[in-house]
Specification:
Layout lengths: L5 E11 L2 E11 L4 E6 L5 H9 L6 E7 L13 E4 L11 H11 L6 H10 L15 H13 L5 E5 L7 H15 L3 E5 L11 E5 L2
Parallel strand pairs: 3-7, 3-8, 5-6, 6-7
Antiparallel strand pairs: 1-2, 1-4
């Protein structure tokens, strides 16, 4: 059954140190849709993702996210799973300890069956007890997907989704994106258009 979620952004503007990063950005995103945010480095792609996620506030405009929220986690972030270069795991923890901690901060019981399923999905189950600091950059990227998907969010926000991945890792992520899109919404920010096979809407930001 498709989750009844929706994202609506209206007239978004962001200014840093008197520099207008972007303005007049509006879009809507519904279940089974993918939004591509493209643009050169410095055009504000990551900033826009952070605003949608609620990590940053816009200088002007608004973002609303509606959908089913199962208690315990604050605000619309319960509906979001996020993967980004600036999100880091605790490197002294193992992969499984990171997922356990994710459940704790969300106020949820740890679902070990779900965690192990995701670790297998991202080809890290055999290394689940190893400290993340021993992982390659590609493995660190893959564990972020398990972290993002653990609470079954209907919305995936992906900033540079293929960063540091080899061919096998890229294939895993493509399958995750395709599977998620069947019932949820996917927002992808990248300047590499090969990262996205199919998208329904596109925003291009100018640097």
């Amino acid at each position: 059954m498709t989750a009844q979620i929706a994202i609506k952004a209206e007239g978004l503007k962001k200014v840093f140190n008197r520099r207008v990063v972007f303005e007049g950005v509006s879009f809507s995103l519904a279940p089974t849709q993918t939004l591509l945010i493209s643009g050169r480095n410095g055009s504000g792609k990551s900033t826009l993702v952070k605003i949608v996620a609620g990590v940053l506030s816009p200088t002007a405009g608004s973002v609303s996210i509606s959908g089913p929220s199962e208690g315990g986690y604050f605000g619309h972030q319960a509906l979001i799973g996020m993967v980004s270069p600036y999100l880091q795991m605790y490197e002294e923890f193992s992969a499984e300890e990171n997922l356990l901690y994710a459940s704790t901060i969300r106020g949820e019981a740890y679902d070990q069956t779900r965690a192990h399923e995701l670790l297998r999905r991202v080809a890290l189950y055999a290394r689940k007890d190893d400290p993340v600091r021993t992982y390659s950059s590609g493995m660190k990227q893959r564990i972020k997907y398990a972290f993002a998907l653990l609470h079954r969010p209907p919305i995936l926000l992906l900033d540079e989704p293929m960063a540091n991945l080899d061919a096998d890792g890229i294939a895993i992520v493509r399958e995750i994106m395709q599977e998620h899109r069947r019932n949820g919404a996917v927002l992808v920010a990248t300047n590499d258009l090969t990262d996205v096979d199919v998208y329904d809407k596109r925003i291009t930001l100018d640097a």
